[in-house]
Specification:
Layout: E1 2-3, E2 6-7, H1 11-23, H2 29-39, H3 42-53, H4 79-87, H5 92-115
Antiparallel strand pairs: 1-2
């Protein structure tokens, strides 16, 4: 498989071995954002998402995975949809009710702090 004019197993490998060095001299916001994403653990996050949910990207289905090779085939779903489907198995009503009760208790507990007595 070829990424970036060389043989690299994944886009992440291409970025780390070739693109990262080429982008250091660029002042483009697009490249700065990619560097910031990669330097702050973005590839690690995507790698875990791709492995856990068998998905790629966040908002749309891309042509290939970022951290998996092409031998895995094309992605079939984006990670946002995969996570939403996984969370859909949790009763959302119970979670919302519990969060509402916690907020109400916090509000009641905060009132004496602002009362001045």
């Amino acid at each position: 498989m070829k990424f970036g004019g060389g043989d690299f197993p994944t886009f992440k490998a291409c970025y780390e071995k070739k693109l990262k060095d080429q982008m250091t001299s660029s002042s483009s916001d697009k490249w700065n954002n990619l560097r910031a994403f990669a330097d702050n653990g973005g590839f690690n996050f995507l790698s875990k998402m791709e492995e856990s949910y068998n998905c790629a990207s966040l908002c749309s289905v891309p042509l290939f995975y970022m951290t998996k090779g092409l031998e895995n085939g094309r992605p079939t779903r984006d990670c946002l949809t995969a996570v939403a489907e996984d969370l859909g198995e949790t009763p959302a009503g119970y979670v919302t009710l519990l969060a509402g009760l916690l907020i109400l208790v916090s509000l009641i507990g905060a009132c004496p702090l602002c009362g001045g007595s």
